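Q: Joint fold for the lines below.
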Amino acid sequence: MNAAAAVQILHPSGAAKDHSQQRQKQMLADYFAALSRAKEEGRKVVYTFVPGNLVELIGALDMLPVLPEINALQSAMRKRSAGYIAEAEKAGHSEDVCSYVKCDIGMMKSGNIGPTGSPLPEPDLLLLSYTGCFTFMKWFELLKQEYRCPIVMLHVPYQASGVITDEMRRYVVDQIRDQVVPAMEQVAGRKLDPVELRRRLALSRRAEDDLVAVWESARHRPSPIDGYFGGVYYIGPIFSAFRGTEDAVAYYRELREEVEERVVRNEGPVTPDGTPAIERYRLVVEGPPNWTHFNDFWRMFSREGAVMVSSTYTRVGGLYDAGFRHDPDRPLESLAEYCLGCYTNLSLPARIELLERHIRTYQADGFLINSVKSCNSFSAGQLLILRELEKRTGVPGGFIESDLVDPRYFGRANIENRVQSYLQMLQARRERSVA
Ligand code: SF4
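A: Joint structure:
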C-alpha cells in the first residue's frame, strides 16, 4: 500500500509499533525498491486500481503492480496533495473531479515521485477492472494519453440486485481468459503458469482467513482493534501489491496473533497518541477517511473514547468477512467473484444490509457517515443509507463531510463540533436508558 517514507501511514503517531507494523514497513520498502529497479531489470509494470485488482495474475506473470489510489493517499499524508491538485486544476481538471485523480495527475506532471522519493516507473500496461466507479474509466483514459501504453479493460457487471448470477460470473471469466490474460501475457512476454496462479490464490486465501479473524475480534469488549483508522493499516498489504505472497501470509498471521494477545489482555487498540484506547463508544463507519488530516481526524474520536469497531471502507477491496475467499481450485471463477463482490460494485440496498449487519454484529452504539466530496461511488445515497439504518436498527447515525485528499474540504472546527455533538448525544441517550 505504501512505502518506507510512506510508512507514516503505518505509524501515524510515531508511537510504539507492533511487530507486524515493522514487517509491513519492510515489505513496503522492498516493494518500492523493486519498483525503482523495475526498468533496469526488465520487469514489466502494471497500473491497476484497488477494487477488483488482479494482483495474483500480475504476480504470476512476474510483473509488478502500481495502484494509483495508494499513491494519491500517500501524497496526501505527506502533505503534497494540495500542490498536485493545484497542478491538475491548472491543466484544466475541474474542481469537481475526484481528488484522487487530480492528485495522481498532478504527481505525474511533477515527476511521478513515489513515496520513497524515487520516481515511479511508467506503466507497461493499464489494467482496468471496472468495478462500479465510472471515474476509473476516465482516470485511465487520461493515463493512456500520457503514457501511450496498452490498456485492457475487464468489464464487471454491477450487482444491481445484490446477487452474483452464473451469467455474470461466466461473463467476467470469459473476459479474463480471452482478453485480460492474453493482453497481460503479451506485455509480460511469457505464458501464464496455471500452477503458479493457483499457488498464489492459495496464499491469498490463507491471508484472508487471518484478516477475517482480525475483523471479528471487534466483537470483543473492549474491541482490540480500531476497524477504521487502524483498519486502513490492516488492509494495506491485502488490498494492494501483496495479496498472493508469502509476505502477506506472514504479516496477517502475525497481526492476528497480536490482536488475539490484546484480547487476552483486555486491551483496546493503540491510539495515535500511543496509548491503548479506552472504549466508551463503539461506532461503525461508512465512507473513506480523510487522508490530509488523518491523525487529527482520528484523535477527534480516540480522545473521546470512540472506537470504530467496523467500517465499509476497509471492505472496499474485498468482502472477506461476508465469506468470499480466493480459491485455487476455481482460479478464474474466484477472481471473477472477487471483482463482482467489491464494495464499489454493490447496490445501495446491499450496502445498507452490510452496514446493518455490522452494526448488529459488533453491537455498535452508533454509526457515522463520512461523506467525501470527491467520491460519488461512496457518497451518492448516503443520506438515504442514514435514514434507513436508523429506522431498521434504532441506532443513531452521525453525518460529517470532508474529502479524501483535498485539504480545502477538511473543515476542522466544523467536523470537530459535529463529532462532539454526536458523541454527547450518544452519551445523553445512554444516560436516559439507564435512568
Ligand atoms: S470516485 Fe471514489 S471510487 Fe471512484 S476513483 Fe474516485 S475515490 Fe475511487
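Q: Anything notable?
A: DSSP finds 16 helices and eight strands in the chain. The two ends are 48 Å apart (CA to CA).
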